[in-house]
Amino acid sequence: MIFFAKLHPMIVHFPVGLLISGVVFEIYGALRSDEAAETAGRFNIRFGFWCLFPVLLVGFLGMISLENTEKFRDFLSSHLKFAFVTAGVFISAMLVSRYLRKPWGRVLYFLVIVVGGICVLSTGYFGGELVHRFGVSTH
Q: Does residue 12 sit within a domain?
């Protein structure tokens, strides 16, 4: 099971990159009326969203294999909280984009993906601290 704790930090960067670049491209494309950038952003967000689920599963399996989590419990708790909030926020973004086709729905969608981007970065901060400060999954 420790295999999953080592695998998670290696594969998590793919959906993180997709989600962050998707948020940036989609907002840039909307502001500059660049349909290609906006379409690329939309694709990255959706693909990154679906790539979250295997990464969440591997992370959860890795977490249950960890021992002596007392010294980094707060960081692990924050990492988990932000990971699940990230998934929830991007689920909300997908629902808003699908069912709220009015102009204010588009504004709401952009607000939600910005919050999602912040959640991704927060999750990454706490995950990075687990790996680099506490050595989780490097032993």
A: yes
**For tokens 């948020």, what's the residue?**
23
Domain limits at 8? 2-132
Q: At what angle do helices 103-132 and 13-32 cross, to 10 degrees?
A: 150
**Residue appearing with tokens 């991704």:** 120
CA distance 58 to 55: 5
- Which amino acid would we find at residue 138? T
Any domain includes 138 = no
Number of domains in the chain: 1
Cβ atoms of 125 and 81 within 8 Å: the answer is no
Residue-wise pLDDT for 66-83, tens only, equals 988 899 999 999 999 999
- What CA–CA distance (Å, rounded) separates 75 from 123? 10
